[in-house]
Specification:
Number of helices: 7
Order of helices and strands: EHEEEHHHEHEHEH
Oligomer: single chain
Structural class: alpha/beta
Number of strands: 7
Radius of gyration: 18 Å
């Protein structure tokens, strides 16, 4: 059985994103979907001032509202250095803050401006630093799949030889599971329970932060163990 998952190439994603990566055989980056303002493509939450706030990558002004992710570019402003300094300042007292800052620095030094390529590069770097067994990474743009919604996920599965789709629990509200069944694809919903861990916060635990928050607080080895659970 070949388990596959699919997701847009998000910016410095949260724990659950990497949980999917560690629990599938093929992970498809949906790089040819349309950009949506307010999405996680160019932003993620981190703890700044011990409160969850947006860390945002500046995007070059788009030519149209229908621009695909692999046609978009980050700006040439100094947003990378600003984010790096902001992260270093706010996470400097974490047990593994220097490790997380070093990872972020290696990502921010990457000169790629294409949004999709930059984000997938960052995800590769984080996976490598965590030492997890990475699945096969595939770009949806390489598959020539033109369908939409659930049919698109089915067609992607057929194109890569996948017969079990790993889905987030929230997708059950809009996915058409009958379509998967018609294509002999089993749908498996993620069993992930967001872990709680000591966090440099204002007294409560905030889930959904970038995985760099997890690494800064509990380190690479413990983060990896939680992901593999």
């Amino acid at each position: 059985m070949t388990i596959y998952a699919a997701h847009q190439p998000n910016f410095l994603p949260w724990f659950g994103y990497f949980y999917k990566i560690t629990h599938c055989d093929v992970f498809v980056f949906l790089d040819d979907v349309q950009f949506s303002s307010g999405s996680y493509i160019n932003r993620v939450k981190m703890l700044f001032g011990k409160q969850p706030k947006w860390a945002t990558a500046s995007i070059r002004k788009r030519q149209s509202h229908t621009t695909q992710l692999n046609q978009m570019f980050y700006s040439n402003s100094d947003w990378e250095q600003l984010l790096l300094r902001r992260f270093e300042h706010n996470y400097r007292n974490c047990a593994h803050g220097r490790v997380a800052t070093s990872i972020l620095e290696s990502i921010m030094l990457h000169k790629e401006r294409n949004v999709s390529k930059f984000n997938t590069y960052a995800i590769h770097i984080i996976c490598k630093e965590l030492g997890i067994d990475m699945p096969e990474f595939v770009l949806s743009s390489s598959l020539s799949v033109q369908s939409q919604s659930t049919q698109r996920l089915c067609d992607i599965g057929k194109a890569i030889g996948g017969n079990s789709y790993l889905s987030g629990n929230g997708a059950s509200a809009y996915q058409e599971n009958a379509l998967f069944a018609a294509h002999n694809i089993q749908v498996c919903y993620s069993q992930m329970q967001h872990p709680t861990y000591p966090q440099i916060a204002d007294g409560e635990f905030y889930p959904g932060m970038s995985i760099l928050d997890t690494i800064a607080n509990i380190g690479l080895e413990t983060t990896k163990k939680l992901l593999m659970g």
